[in-house]
Amino acid sequence: MTLRQHELPGAETTARPDWLPIAFEVHRISTNGTRIAAAVGGTGPPMVLLHGWPQTSRAWRRVMPALAQRHTVVVPDLRGAGASDRPAGGYAKTNQADDMRGVLAELGLTGPAVVVGHDIGAMVAFAWAASHPGDVSALVLLDALIPGLGLEEAMNVAEGGMWHFGFFMAPEIPEMLFDGHELEFVSATFGALSTPGTFTDDDLAYYAKAYQGKDRLRGGFEQYRTLLEDGTANRALLAGRDGLPMPVLVVAAGRHVGDVDVAAPLRPYVPHVSGVAAPSGHFIAEEVPDWFVGTLERFLAPAGS
Predict the structure, then answer these.
(1) Contact present, 94 and 32 (Cβ < 8 Å)
(2) CA 248 – CA 231 distance, rounded (Å)
(3) Hey, what domains does the chain have and what are their CATH numbers?
(4) Which residues pair with 278 in a beta bridge?
(5) Based on C-alpha coordinates, what's the Rg of the chain?
(6) 175-198 confidence digits (pLDDT tens)
(7) How far apart are CA 36 and CA 41, in angstroms?
(8) Average pLDDT score over residue span 35-44
(9) pLDDT at residue 305, as a whole number
(10) Residue ranges of the AB hydrolase-1 domain (predicted)?
């Protein structure tokens, strides 16, 4: 079922951010014990875009108009981010999948959705597909390691793994150290992981403000504090199962992966998985939006999604 913008039920329309593309509106939706802000626009079968950290739904602004030509595009702020609430708990990725299910239900959008996730959003997207496979017609994972399917090994600093996962999981310490240094962190992180020129000073200032102060920072770091729990949940969901039934596309940052088979970690669990390296850094939908839209459309075309 697809609804035009003026027909959307069950959600409170809220103020339009300056960055929001024309024909999208933001709704504040009470579901699963919290309130989620979601931008909605377009017509056609539903597509959900889930952002990463330290970003918000604004991360998809360069691709939303094109995708809305063929889909009803739903672009939430994850709990703890943007205009969504920042509750004390509930950041397990399976629980955030329930946030998204509630958003679609309140918007009156039924039937399976294409679910696209980047970074932390990809972890939520995978948990959604694993816990409720009938909800997801196709799954797209952008430049993310998945808990229980290789993330833990990549977190092992003793073997040369990435230090930041463990640091971000520490209670209270990251908020204390990052408070007052948000712009410095965002500028350094985005600069190191993206193609030069992708982000303007205004972009960096926006994301720094979105996570300014200990409470907003906490909402972001809570995403990391459940990662070990998330891995246990994913392995349990996949145990005894033939794998995820939907087609899955894994997109990695070509600047960083070289010739590696980017779909390899998922192949034992996903029969219909393909992988591709983007001509970009980590922020694929912002660095190469036209390439991303074209790749997504080609992936979805065989299934008629």
Answers:
(1) no
(2) 19
(3) 5-150+229-303 (3.40.50.1820)
(4) 253
(5) 18
(6) 999 999 999 999 999 999 999 999
(7) 16
(8) 97
(9) 52
(10) 45-155
